Amino acid sequence: MASKNQNKPPSSPSHSKYSVDDVSVDKRRRIGNTRMPPNSGTRVQSRQAFSVVNGAKIHLRPAGHLAIGSDSGVTEFTREDVEALLIEKLRIKNKFNYKEKSEQMAEYIKRLKQCIKWFQQCEGNYVTEQEKLKNLLELAEKKCNDMELLMKAKEDELNSIIMELRKNLEALQGKFSKEELNKLEALDSLAKEKDSRLAAERLNASLSEELKRSQEDNASNVQKASQDEAMKQKEALGSEVTCLRGELQQVRDDRDRQLLQVQALSAEVVKYKECTGKSIAELDSLTTKTNELESTCLSQSEQIRRLHEQLAFAEKKLKLSDISAMETRSEFEEQKTIINQLQNRLADAESKIVEGEQLRKKLHNTILELKGNIRVFCRVRPILSDDGVGTDTKVVSFPTSAEAQGRGIDLTQNGQKLSFTFDKVFMPDASQEDVFVEISQLVQSALDGYKVCIFAYGQTGSGKTYTMMGKPAPPDQKGLIPRSLEQVFETRQILQAQGWKYEMQVSMLEIYNETIRDLLAPNRSGFDASRAENAGKQYSIKHDANGNTYVSDLTIVDVHSSKEVSYLLDRAAQSRSVGKTQMNEQSSRSHFVFTLRITGFNESTDQQVQGVLNLIDLAGSERLSKSGSTGDRLKETQAINKSLSSLSDVIFALAKKEEHVPYRNSKLTYLLQPCLGGDSKTLMFVNVSPDPSSVGESLCSLRFAARVNACEIGVPRRQTNLRSLDSRLSIG
């Protein structure tokens, strides 16, 4: 039985309805179609960015767009704006007004940075988009090639399977035809054998009848004469019957053999029919699969055709993008040159700003040293949770004008605003590091051989002790005293390479109720022990002809590292007099004086210097009506206010340039005499509380600080070429 696809010629790649080239082309087009849409938004943004750059108009948009904007909103630049920005010159009426110049330069730098930032990010976006397009094209070509190879392999495989099936079908059909012919021949032979058997049986029956008649005739006619002849005929007939029987047996054997052969052939025919049925079923299924594959190939060829069209369109767009990118690149190179020029101008401007600020500070310090004024820094502590309960009034503010910014402070009392100006004003958010940076050069002067004095003044709870001592943890909370000591010892290590060797001595005392107490005296364990010891020991203050002040019997400790001084500070803090009032949980009830005497010698230059660093934390001024002090606290408050009042009298006398200055009215003023009226570099911190309920005390503190800032003292003098040193410690 022949298959319905028996006469169908085998398919080959050369005779296929869709060639490999068509498949590859359609396949490429399909890949381009499937890969391009997700990046359509990128192409739109790219074209928009190109059009913006070609139009020489730059829009700084918020984050998320191609154009990157600033935090202050949308800023537009045109080519004229950029050129104007490049040729812009600062317009300053007074060329020595560095602050105005700095503000204009800062604004100019800000606009330059915005322009530079946009160009840099725009360049990055263009490069990223070009890389995406290249990667997309390479991916589409790779996928198209892979699909072509896969389709070609599948087509070859299907052609080989069809050819093999057709060969098997032809072989089976030939074998089946031979078996049919053998079967027909066997059936013809069987029919012939049946006919010959019937003929032999009929012949045998006729011979038997003829023999019977012959016997009867012979018996009746010539029995004896014909007996021999009958016997001969009988023998001849017997032999003939024997031959016929042998032939009949041979025919029967041949028949049986042919029957067995026919049965075997019939079984083989049945088997071949089953195999042919299976082959036909397989051929039908393969034909179905072939049809499906042909339809799939047709659809894929159509998809590949579309992909080729899309790929051509994408290549066209890519060419346009390349042309636009080249134009943008040329414009970018121009803008890059402009940016480099702007950056160079920016670097020059920043260096000039830094140099100008350094020059301003240097000139300011020189002016103050020539005038001999006491420098005054003001620091406002942050608002606490229990400040100004029940009111929203803000009593402390800071001016924003160029002249007063960073140096001015405004205090509002009863609706009236009072303005003050100092050498530096620290707002509540200023850190300990910010404060120390401003006094670091003053601390350096102690190593150079100058007398330096820094003291903190203000009401109770305004942050004096925090400014001077700070907190042990975290490290950024350390105060001026620990930071100053760290700087002194670090600078000593650096100066050793220049041949300098330093010896340092430390003493710490407090003035409690007009009594001097040694905070480093041995066998002390707190306030009670201090009171018991100092009850029997009197410390006296003495001044020599060189302007140095000594305290008799004061404990002096040689130190070699900042860790040793930190240990001594902790020891002194445990011995210092503190108490609880209604205004402060831990109020300092005494004036704390830390003194570091520095002696340096340079062997190479044979130069010797002696400097003194005095760091003082004054007790806070307070009103009895607010502190609620009674008993010992009342006596402490009266003593503190008396000593601070004496300090105010000294400042008034210095401001009026009176001949007599009442230094001896208080132990504090007598101890500070070299700092207030000598040749020392002196700095006062006035600490202010922003609490509305303390506005009266804050106003008094600011007025006092203004008077201190107006006082003129002696010009600082460096102490050098000292050949002999006193074993006692000078505090000023």
From TrEMBL:
Domain Kinesin motor intervals: 373-711
PROSITE patterns, sorted: KINESIN_MOTOR_1 (PS00411), KINESIN_MOTOR_2 (PS50067)
Coiled-coil ranges (or none): 297-359
Superkingdom of source: Eukaryota
Residue span of region Disordered: 1-46, 209-231
GO biological process: microtubule-based movement
CDD domains from the UniProt entry: KISc_C_terminal
GO cellular component: microtubule
GO molecular function, a single term: ATP binding
Sorted UniProt keywords: ATP-binding, Coiled coil, Microtubule, Motor protein, Nucleotide-binding
Tagged with keyword Oxidoreductase: no
Residue ranges with Polar residues bias: 36-46
Protein name as it appears in the record: Kinesin-like protein
Species of provenance: Sesamum radiatum
